[in-house]
Amino acid sequence: MIISNETEKIILQLQQNEVTEQAIYLNLSKRVKSQTERDTLKRIGDEEGVHSEIWRRYTNKNLKANKFKVFIYTLLSIIFGYTFAIKIMERSEKDAQDIYSKLITEVPEAKTIYQEEEAHEMVLISLLNEERLQYVGSMVLGLNDALVELTGTLAGLSFALQNNKLVALSGLITGISATLSMASSEYLSARSEGDSNALKSSLYTGIMYIFAVILLVLPYLLLPRDNYIQALIIMLVIVVLIIFVFTYYISVAKDLPFKKRFVEMAVISLSVAALSFLVGIVVKHFLGIDV
């Protein structure tokens, strides 16, 4: 099979991608609970192996999976779920698919592989039914409420108390109480709607809320008691990072727009923080309280 040097380089890259993706799919198939999804992932992984074998006939090279990539996607699946990991991988695969059309003249099999890669997309969309994505509404509720409420509370207390340890103490008490309140409210709301998974909904809400509480209070616990301005700034940076990561996760896993949702959530949280900080200044001034 005679091919140009440029084509050989492209095929070598595609072969490496197929070998690595086969390892990722087979690895993910061992981690999912549903037998149907496990079998589907394994089948797709096997097809990736067939594709890599086709490319090997042109390159005459035996390649091994990129262990770092396999590790990264496995880690992503553990942290964010296999839906997120697969969709991130499929996004990068779309870029590779654009190359196939350029190979058809020299490599007839490229058209078949391209069609099979397209079929992967449809299969994946139909199989992805990850449990955590069924509770995105509860997760959003817990995180949004925690970020808006606690950001405002900590910002107001930062100037009113001007003591990181007191702010941390107040924030933890408020955050833990609010976590229990939100989780129980979500449970009662879900139960009233006849949801048989009301307990799971409340747990997802509570977990996201307490997760935000811990991260936002952390700067006040770690910094010296007088560095309340630095703690406030770090806390606000953490807020933006949490919003960025969570919004990106939802946008990828649920195929939703990212930019609009991120800006909206960030503006609301930071605006509440600014207003609460001003409230802290006003209250401290008019009440004449000096802690």
Q: What structural class do you assign from the helix and strand content?
A: mainly alpha
What string gives the helices and strands in order? HHHHHHHHHH
What is the C-alpha radius of gyration, as a whole number of Å? 25 Å
Helix content: over 70%
What secondary-structure arrangement, pairings included, does this model have?
Elements: H1 5-29, H2 35-59, H3 67-80, H4 82-103, H5 109-127, H6 136-161, H7 164-192, H8 198-222, H9 228-253, H10 259-287
Molecular structure report:
The protein is mainly alpha-helical and 291 residues long. It has two domains: 5-129; 133-287, no CATH class. The protein is built from ten helices and no strands. The mean pLDDT is 80.
In short:
The chain has 291 residues and is an all-alpha fold.
Describe the structure using short key phrases.
single chain, 291 residues, mainly alpha, 2 domains, 0% strand
